[in-house]
């Protein structure tokens, strides 16, 4: 999916969650998949909340990793505005250097110092695309009311060292009436699935068995 600094996206003023959800629906249609279990990390989770609003009939279950239903608080909006201004004024090289240093948890940076370079190498968006992503994140809707409508199983995995999405914020997903299995991974930052892939997989595998035909 185009977003988050890990893929190329078309230059556009704003990359909205609605656009991302529409892309997923288009892919499902192309692959002739009527229904699926979806997993999203960070912006991927925000897009899945929009997907649920648009096409709940296509969703059997949802995994949220380091993603929350709340919109940006004022402080986050200010940070995104600063990021947009920096990307426009000086490009994204130094900006992405900083993101690669701060988004992984301190434990991952200590135990796997190479993770910073690995993440940085994946951040290939143009300045225009990064502006579009940040603008889309800043304008995403409040999805807390949406959580109360999710009547399929939910798995929520938070990182104890996530500086962007706190475990406390992710607890709002417990309100899903379809049931929410909630976990906090000790020592994981914002890229929990990348920092601790085996532990994330160990949580997902047994949860996914409920969908076996």
UniProtKB/TrEMBL annotation:
Record organism: Candidatus Sulfuritelmatomonas gaucii
Occurrences of domain AB hydrolase-1 (ranges): 10-202
PANTHER family noted in UniProt: MONOACYLGLYCEROL LIPASE
Keywords of the record: Hydrolase
Superkingdom classification of source: Bacteria
One Pfam family in the UniProt entry: Abhydrolase_6
GO molecular function, one term: hydrolase activity
Name of the molecule in the record: Hydrolase, alpha/beta fold family
InterPro entries from the UniProt entry: AB_hydrolase_1 (IPR000073), AB_hydrolase_fold (IPR029058), AB_hydrolase_sf (IPR050266)
